[in-house]
Specification:
eight-stranded mixed β-sheet; 16 strands; 8 helices; 300 residues
Length: 300
């Protein structure tokens, strides 16, 4: 006898299997989560929704062992929004993929010296970036970590008196503070570099709220950083500088931080609207990464 005929419901059962969603594992309570069980080269809409929610909640998300070619990397980054042209940054460029920054350093090509300044990317502009996607292709055997701090956790930990003082205040941010010739002078040694430096120096400061409301979560976060923030608007200079110095020091609290030791083929996404970061320049062997930065909106 032949096999019994399958009912229509039996035949089509596989079509109704639920999507395989990733596993999300917090790294530390304040910031960071590892996401596993997902191939970013073939991510589904349902999987991306879970990943998006994880970024909003944890601010920094880490994926291990991802195999992405350049086109797949760009396609994943575009799920977050419109990429910023790599020409907007001072990093190396990748021919044929104008969205990708090339971060390629070793002993002969040392990374930029940033004088131990934490920063939130591009806050010297009216519309700082939403975030970045960073893909590790080659990693030194030791060193080259990146630290992130949750500016949401830092805000939550402020006293009510300080929160009330900061409410409604705005701060000026200037790109030249982070890219001045005394900070990254190696960028401005040739004529093209000097012309770019003059453009940076000519940029007017941007004004942003000291306390930013996240456009998705609605949570409040500090939005000042040592790399770009220069002064509090409408506050006497000495008072404003004292408050900023206090906030910069407060943001260095270890309980608000994540330190990520990369593996080859790690991909990290961070939310620039509620974090700042610091790349540790303590390595000598090659560190090669591709970065795609996502355009953002004017902070509220």
């Amino acid at each position: 006898m032949g096999a019994p005929a399958q009912s229509e419901a039996t035949v089509n059962t596989s079509a109704y299997r639920p999507a395989i969603l990733p596993t999300i594992s917090p790294i530390v309570p304040a910031v960071g989560a590892t996401i596993s069980g997902i191939d970013l080269a073939r991510i589904t809409d349902a999987q991306f929704a879970a990943v998006h929610n994880a970024l909003v909640r944890h601010h920094v998300i880490v994926f291990h062992d991802q195999q992405l070619d350049k086109a797949q990397l760009v396609a994943f980054a575009r799920r977050w929004g419109e990429p910023q042209p790599a020409s907007e940054s001072s990093f190396g460029k990748l021919e044929g993929f104008p969205e990708i920054d090339v971060l390629d350093y070793d002993a002969s090509r040392p990374p930029y010296v940033t004088k131990e300044m934490w920063h939130t990317d591009f806050t010297g502009r009216d519309k700082p970036t939403l975030g970045s996607v960073l893909y590790a292709l080659e990693i030194p055997p030791a060193g080259g970590d990146t630290l992130w701090v949750s500016q949401t956790a830092a805000y939550d930990a402020l006293s009510e008196r300080m929160k009330n003082y900061l409410a409604g205040l705005r701060a000026e941010h200037e790109t030249v503070k982070s890219f001045g010739d005394d900070i990254r002078g190696n960028l401005w040694q040739d004529e093209a570099g000097r012309q770019r430096f003059e453009k940076i120096r000519a940029q007017p400061p941007a004004s942003h709220p000291v306390i930013r409301t996240h456009p998705v979560s609605g949570r409040q976060a500090l939005f000042v950083n040592e790399g770009y923030t220069t002064r509090l608007v409408g506050v006497e200079r000495k008072e404003g500088q004292a408050v900023l110095n206090y906030l910069f020091e407060h943001l260095r609290t270890p309980e608000f931080q994540l330190r990520h030791r990369r593996r080859k083929r790690d991909l990290v996404v961070w939310d620039n609207r509620c974090t700042q970061h610091y790349a540790v320049a303590d390595y000598r062997e090659r560190r090669l990464m591709y970065r795609i930065t996502i355009q953002g909106e004017r902070p509220d």
